[in-house]
Amino acid sequence: MEFDPLLISRIQFAFVVSFHAIFPVFTIGLASYIALLEGLHFKTGNPAWAQLSRFWTKVFAVAFGMGVVSGIVMSFQFGTNWSNFAQMSANFLGPILSYEVVTAFFLEAAFLGVLLFGRDKVPRGTHLFAAIMVALGTFISSFWILVANSWMHTPAGVEFQDGMLHVRSWAEAIFNPSFPYRFTHMAVASFLTGSFVVAGVSAWYLLKGHMVEANRKALSMCLWMILFLAPAQAVIGDFHGINTLEYQPIKVAAMEGNWERQAGAPLLLFALPDQAAQENRFEIGIPKLASFILTHDANGVIPGISEVAPQDQPPVSIVFWSFRIMVGIGFLMIAFGIWGLVLRLRGRLYEPGFFHRVLPLMIAAPFVAVLAGWFTTESGRAPWLVYGMINFSEGVTPSLTGWMAMVSLVGYMSVYAVVYASGGYYLWRLVQGGMADVEPGSSEPGAHPKRPLSAGGPIGDTAPAAPARGDWT
Amino acid sequence: MIDFTMIWAIIIAFGVIMYVLMDGFDLGVGILYPFAPDEESRDVMMNSVAPVWDGNETWLVLGGAGLLGAFPLVYSVLLPALYLGVFLLLAGLIFRGVAFEFRFKASPAKKGWWSAAFAGGSTVAALAQGIVVGAYIQGFETENFAYVGGAFDWLTPFSVLTGIGLVLGYALLGSTWLIMKTEGPVQEWAYRLTPKLLGGVLGVFLIISFWTPLVDEFVRDRWFSHLFSIWLLPAGALACAWLILRSVRNRAEGLPFVATMGLFIFTYLGLLASKWPYVVPPDYTLYDAASARESQMFLLLGVLFVIPVVLAYTAWTYWVFRGKVRPGEGYH
Q: Are A29 and A195 in contact (CB under 8 A)?
């Protein structure tokens, strides 16, 4: 059987980058949260903040570790599978990715060591400083990587010379047209992800009556964040869409499932795009709403997918549906923010109830939304690697054969299956084990009194010294 | 006119040796894992590198990104040429990287699996890196600035030998690191292991030295006809080897590690001097492989300011975690 190295390389990139992306999006938000908790503890001395910080730092360590190892893979993908693209775009992407390493990765790595292992080795202020540096590192990292990614969507400041892109203006290339929107959208997504994870776990602990004081504080903070950030994200997303309409009109056409250019385009709630027939097979829509959202004019003109030849079109179904999944979850998030506010106003935010049972289920939501968003924007760029400049077949490694690509794809899938299943399991157990073992003062490794919440009734704030990890595997 | 390409060659060469020395010792600790006296020793060994391994590995990412930024041809020829080897390298690094977190979270029954993942991943990664060195000495088949060779050109008896050499070399860095960072039974074990590892390293070193001029005419010419001062470098390496032996016999704690780093640096300089100025042998030099001048300059501006800061806080974290690692201490 003959494999197509180009197609397999695309699948491989989608696979490794998707598995990588879910960790940074969580750790960027969580790093800031930990820095905030450390700061609050430093300022008030309230042990509840320290309990929260210690617990979430452990979760952070596992998630960050998985982000690091999957990130190392990313830094070689351009060379192994897309070497012509690497060579052509190196004059811009090389320096940008190098800046990410020297300004962010080293900062995160060095201070993470102090954050995780140095609590008893450095003064408290220095430990707080380390937490802030880790959080700062995650942001600097996302700045550079989104510069690189945005430039691939809306390239600027470069020109071709002898088969390689040369940078004409660094300012234009770095602050390219889609960068401000993408960066803001992603930063807010990270905070929302962190908020939903912490809120979900806190709600679950409140249901169990575990560490009530600390978890009330955490739940309250996160719900405030969600209340304001979820609607803000919708507004940012709207601006991002308008920017995309200007620079990547065909992507927007695919997001809307709009095949022919038209004024007063409907917002399709449901459709089955048929790329072969260049039309939708079934659709339900709200008249004129797409035009109104995108152009802020009910009779505004929306471009059509058919304006470019079929081989230059993105895969419409993927773009269309992942966009709807992202937006749908976005509205769900807004609803949860409001629900939390209503409970708060009625003074029932901390009373274990239906809300607290549903909230843990929402932990998955931001991750799905983020992946769906990335699928929308990345698939929507097809068939271009650098929009309008370098396409997939120009960029792929010429010496790569189908079976080599297949070996590495199957290899990565197997490795990630083992690593991520284990990681997910240990994270689950970490949460299940509760926060009791992270009481200040007990820093003995391997000897934390730990007791599974599922094994019995509620665990009070004073944890009994149950046997350690060995007894519940 | 400033020769940015030369400056970048020096920066990248510095980054590579930083990676080799720093990730070398923590990979070496992993390679030695199966031979450790007991589980408690393994805990101590892992804790001795746990706070710093992530920073050490970041030098590899810098190597990848820095090559793309300054010498894109190296990046876009070597990675396709080494495609399957790169996968093995990364798979190894993934398993040993997550083992740091997972091993301490696993139940006693499963802990052994993550010890094995740590050891196996470290060994495979070291072997793959050593094979890269061998493949680099052999050279790459290129046409018109792209790799045109086969999928397994990198896998030869010669490159496997350089692979084994690097595994032993990293293990030596690991054992001397443990001499410095531990005490009691672990340290005693490392003291006994070090001369054996050194013997292995020197053995491979010797074979490679005889073999390299046979596989590579360019190197033969350089060694025997043109540049006799190059012989100072292996002489320096041998002096370091002698120093390792002597300091281990005297039960010195820091000197064996420092001397091992010296051994690596002399060997590395010897390799560079043998191949200079070819970065994609046998066809392309530094200057063929360089990125655009404005890109080199843009990146240099930042790197000149940032790298010293990186070195400063990296040194500071090593200072924070100075001294001996004791059983039961260290994990967050």
A: yes
Q: Is B215 on the interface with A (CB under 8 A)?
A: no
Nearest neighbour of B87 by CB, restricted to A61, A105, A408: A408
Instruction: Name the CA radius of gyration of chain A, rounded.
Output: 24
| B23 falls within a domain | yes
Buried b (16+ CB within 10 A) or exposed e, B35-51: ebeeeebbbbbbbbbbb
CB contact under 8 Å between A91 and B294, yes or no, is: yes
- With respect to residue B256, please indicate whether it lies within any of the assigned structural domains: no
The H-assigned helical ranges of B229-282 are 232-249, 255-275
Q: What is the dihedral sign for C-alpha B191, B196, B200, B206?
A: positive
Does ipTM top 0.90?
yes
Element of type H or E holding A60 = helix A47-81
* Domain contains B71: yes
Cβ contact A101–B58 (<8 Å): yes
A236: in domain: no
- Calculate mean pLDDT across residues A67-80: 90
Nearest-Cα distance to chain A for B308, in Å, is 10
Evaluate if residue A169 carries a pLDDT over 60. yes
User: To the nearest whole angstrom, how far is the Cα of B293 from the nearest Cα of chain A?
Assistant: 9
Q: Which helix (H) or strand (E) holds A8?
A: helix A5-44
d(CA A16, CA A22): 11
In the predicted model, is pLDDT for residue A436 greater than 80? no
pLDDT tens track for B226-257: 767 888 999 999 999 999 999 999 999 999 99
Q: Which of A142, A5, A66, A96 is nearest to A427 (CA)?
A: A66
* Among chain B residues, CA nearest to A123: B320
Q: Under an 8 A CB cutoff, do A80 and B330 touch?
A: no
Q: What does the alpha-carbon distance between residue B317 and residue A126 come to, in Å, rounded to a whole number? A: 12
Judged by CB atoms closer than 8 Å, whether chains meet at A110 and B313 is answered as yes
B215 assigned to some structural domain? no
Among the partner residues A80, A112, A399, nearest to B86 by beta-carbon distance: A80
- Angle in degrees, CA B58, B63, B64, rounded to 5: 100
In chain B, what percentage of residues exceed pLDDT 70? Answer: 98
Report the residue of chain B nearest A112, measured CA to CA. Answer: B51
Q: Residue A226 in contact with residue A199, Cβ under 8 Å?
A: yes
Do A122 and B77 count as a contact with CB atoms less than 8 A apart?
Answer: no
pLDDT digits (tens, 9 = 90+) for B75-116: 999 999 999 999 999 999 999 999 998 998 888 888 999 999
Query: Could you read off the pLDDT of B6-18 as tens digits, one per residue?
Result: 999 999 999 999 9
Which domain, by its residues, includes A145?
Answer: 5-228+390-472
Helix locations, B50-156, DSSP H: 53-70, 72-81, 83-105, 108-138
* Cβ neighbours of A75 in B, within 8 Å: 61, 64-65
pTM for the complete prediction? 0.91
Using the beta-carbon criterion (under 8 Å), do A106 and B55 form an inter-chain contact? yes
CB spacing of A79 vs B78 below 8 angstroms? yes
In whole numbers, what is the pLDDT of chain A averaged over residues?
A: 91
Which chain B residues contact residue A166 at CB under 8 A? Answer: 292, 294-295
When the pLDDT of each residue in chain B is averaged and rounded to a whole number, the result is: 93
Q: Residue B39: which domain range?
A: 4-207+277-316
Query: Does any domain span residue A58?
Result: yes
Between A126-135, A154-163, B59-68, the lowest mean confidence (pLDDT) is in B59-68
Count of structural domains, chain A: 1
pLDDT digits (tens, 9 = 90+) for A332-342: 999 999 999 99
What's the number of domains chain B is made of?
Answer: 1
- What's the pLDDT at A1? 65
